Amino acid sequence: MGELFRSEEMTLAQLFLQSEAAYCCVSELGEIGMVQFRDLNPDVNVFQRKFVNEVRRCEEMDRKLRFVEKEIKKADMPIVDTGENPEVPVPRDMIDLEATFEKLENELKEINTNQEALKKNFLELTELKHILRRTQQFFDEMEDPTLLEESSTLLDPNEVNRVAPLRLGFVAGVIGRERIPTFERMLWRVCRGNVFLRQADIEDSLEDPSSGDQVHKSVFIIFFQGDQLKNRVKKICEGFRATLYPCPETPQERKEMLAGVNARIDDLQMVLNQTEDHRQRVLQAAAKAVRVWFIKVRKMKAIYHTLNLCNIDVTQKCLIAEVWCPVSDLDSIQFALRRGTEKSGSTVPSILNRMQTKQTPPTYNKTNKLTSGFQNIVDAYGIGSYREINPAPYTIITFPFLFAVMFGDLGHGVLMTCAALYLVLRESRLIAQKNDNEMFSMVFAGRYIILMMGLFSIYTGIIYNDCFSKSLNVFGSGWSVRPMFNVRVGGNWTFETLEGNKVLQLDPAVDGVFKGPYPIGIDPIWNIATNKLTFLNSFKMKMSIILGVIHMLFGVTLSLFNHLYFQKPLNIYLGFIPEIVFMASLFGYLVLLIFYKWLSYNVRLSRDAPSLLIAFINMFLFNYSDPTVKPLYTGQQALQTLLVLIALACVPCMLIVKTLVLRRQYLWRKNLGTQNFGGIRVGNGPTDDEAEIIQHDQLSQHSEDEPEFNFADVAVHQAIHTIEYCLGCISNTASYLRLWALSLAHAQLSEVLWSMVMHIGLSTRSVAGFFLLSIVFCFFAVLTVAILLIMEGLSAFLHALRLHWVEFQNKFYSGQGFKFLPFTFEGILDGKFED
Fold first, then answer.
1. For the purposes of burial, counting CB atoms within 10 Å of the CB of 11, is it exposed (0-12), middle (13-18) or buried (19 or more)?
2. Contacts from 770-773 at CB under 8 Å and sequence distance 24+?
3. Domain 1-39+308-364: what homologous superfamily?
4. Is 604 exposed, middle or buried (0-12, 13-18, 19+ CB in 10 A)?
5. Does 114-151+166-266 match 1-39+308-364 at the fold level?
6. pLDDT tens for residues 194-248?
């Protein structure tokens, strides 16, 4: 059926790479991304492989680049991303890169260390400046400083001449503003109220040199008496991480110190500015090249990781690798190896040798921008087995169509299509922006799926004639009320009749009332009919059964191509044929009954039409004696009895006959090994002796690989499969009724939203009604997008997903393979594959 409908043909190949050319050859293979390397050293420790030192050097360079990137982001600088994809540097350039990164890291660390020391010095001088200013204010507030020194002594006046006045000592410092209340209480309790504390907030915030955060601090001065209190005060200050500074006792000394501090602060500020300018220049230069450096280092690291998967021959001059690769890309791989050999300057060409193996190859499906989203939907269920039918090409049509059957609305489909078109037309710009929002990335990845769902929703919206819960009367209704005025049914219809009755029924059997079918879709008159829901229920339920049975029959048919490709005739005769006959005899016949009833019963005979549900139930019960149930056609009883018997006969074919044939085949193969093979030699084939040796090897190998046949296990497995298929035909057909249920739910939600929201704005015809309509329309638009587009769209998406995974793919798709993960720089740089 072509490579589009099943996975690519894969082969196991052996690469012989010269040691000096291996690096460049693997580099070229990483650029094209078409080979998956196998680990030929599974028992060797990671730290004992040949290129472990090179990997460590690359990791060290990556660490240094992350440090530089962190510094750039800390400085709020944009990292320049030109989209350039540099070539992999040759191994001898690794020394130059290491020297560059080492120099850059040391320079930045030295700048950071010096800057932190300067900022710490600047902070200390700034705090000292505030202490000197505030301390001077404290002393200026006192009228007589000597009174402050004697305030803590209560002496008898008679003893003044005998005792000299005591001087108070003081310490000054800075403490965090939030610690002031606790600090004050601790001083009071420990010193028992024998200290005097004054504090004032520093208005400007200060920068912490270690973290760079802004902190708020306060200046304090503590007066005390005696060395014992002095020691206690210093210990409390140390415990609260307060910084103490020397403060002179005389105003003149404080003034001179303040002038010196201000001069030092000015000099230090100039040095800080120069240091920051130098740091900015270094980071700006690094920001232009850090993305390219990251790409180079990670490519080198990926190459050495891949080289560690290879074997080295005994001469230490050749590396041997085993790769899975598509057969169609062998020429591209050979060309890449040739380029790598020429780039390395080696004179010995690299060799690609295809190998014969019984191992199951990985599954590889080539995709593009349109098909990748649908392929991901299929792979989410399970990676397809090697070379089996790929459901993705069919899912491109069936998935959005089944979604649209549940979401059918012309207006909502147009909105969804416009949103998807915006993402599709601006995809190059949106990719360049590299949005990290997870929800947006998920929607953007499925932009073509949303576009297809929107287009199909427009189509089904036209069929349903539903646009924001309203019908479009483009061609004029096929129903007319005028002929009813001339029909005598207990009297003519008059205008009084129309005005006096809220509900009247049009009779399609009257000539002229029903002029003919609406050209496309459902007649708009059904939108105002009271029995609209009854009509749509019947129509959509039958439509869901028809679509479901066709979808499942198509899935069973696809299994035939798998059996033909893998050359399993037993699965065709005792698997596919009984399955297709069983489903077609019962549910295919039901679909034919639906079409027969639509075509056979006109408006005059429709009242006598029998129920299809009752007829289908009586078909299984062989009940044809009920006089109230009229047959649909002549010979119905005989045909239905025959179909049920045929369906019942298919069950033992799948359940018993296949198991017995499998046992017979196993016994035949087992006895085949004890027989001698005769025949003549043809062409250049092996001789008779060689043929016997080959036959013996193949049989011994086959006996080792093939498990012992267990009749009970095979019988149980076949019974489970048969019962699951027969019951699944019933349950899966009923599961497709979700197409009917969700379609009605979406239509009813849209109608309720219109009648409860938009109808309010349209009910007023005054000038104020324009403003009311504007407000109501905003609510209507928001609710339409939030509920009907997003919530209902997600619900229909999940139900369509389930119909494909459970009802469709289980008919032919096993999904027991493993994915082809090629060695590609693009995937490694995007973070899709880990080393």
1. middle
2. none
3. ACT domain (3.30.70.260)
4. exposed
5. yes
6. 888 888 888 888 888 877 788 889 898 888 888 888 888 889 998 888 889 888 8
CB-based contact 427:447 (threshold 8 Å)? yes
Dist CA 804 CA 449 (whole Å):
15
Instruction: Say if residue 414 is exposed, middle or buried (CB neighbours under 10 Å; 0-12, 13-18, 19+).
Output: middle
Average pLDDT, the chain: 85
Question: Which 8-state DSSP code applies to residue 47?
Answer: G
Size (the chain), residues: 835
Whole-model pTM above 0.90? no
Specify the long-range contacts of residues 520-525, CB closer than 8 Å, at least 24 apart: 520/462, 520/463, 520/475, 521/462, 521/463, 521/464, 521/465, 522/463, 522/464, 522/465, 522/471, 523/465, 523/477, 523/478, 523/479, 524/465, 524/471, 524/472, 524/473, 524/477, 525/477, 525/478, 525/479
| DSSP codes, 224-268 | E-SHHHHHHHHHHHHHTTPEEE---SSHHHHHHHHHHHHHHHHHH
> Residue 6: which H helix or E strand, with range?
none
CATH of 114-151+166-266, one of 2.60.40.10, 3.30.70.2750, 2.60.120.340, 3.40.630.10: 3.30.70.2750
* Distance of alpha carbon 278 from alpha carbon 274, whole angstroms: 6
The secondary structure of 291-346 as a DSSP string is HHHHHHHHHHHHHHHHHTTSEE-TTSSEEEEEEEEEGGGHHHHHHHHHHHHHHHT-
**Cα distance between residue 184 and residue 91, in whole Å:** 66
Residues 6+ apart with CB under 8 A from 612: 590, 593, 594, 597
End-to-end CA distance of the chain: 36
Q: Where are the domains of the chain?
A: 1-39+308-364, 114-151+166-266, 371-477+737-811, 568-666+711-734
| Encoded tokens for 85 | 């994809």
pLDDT category at 161 given cuts 50, 70, 90 is very low
The pLDDT confidence band at residue 528, using thresholds 50, 70 and 90, is: confident
φ/ψ (deg, to 5) at 231: -65, -40
pLDDT at position 678 is: 42
Q: Of 33-37, 164-168, 655-659, which gets the smallest average pLDDT?
A: 164-168
Specify the higher pLDDT residue, 545 or 222: 545
The packing angle between helices 447-464 and 371-381, to 10°, is 90
> Whole-angstrom Cα distance, residue 189 to residue 184?
9
CB of 411 closer than 8 Å to CB of 758 = no
- Residue 754 near residue 468 (C-beta atoms within 8 A): yes
Indicate the pairing of strand 36-37 with strand 206-207: unpaired
Closest by CA to 736, choosing from 591, 524, 630, is 591
pLDDT in tens, 472-483: 988 888 888 777
Other beta carbons within 10 Å of 327 = 12
DSSP secondary structure of 740-801: HHHHHHHHHHHHHHIIIIIHHHHS--SSHHHHHHHHHHHHHHHHIIIIIIIIHHHHHHHHHH
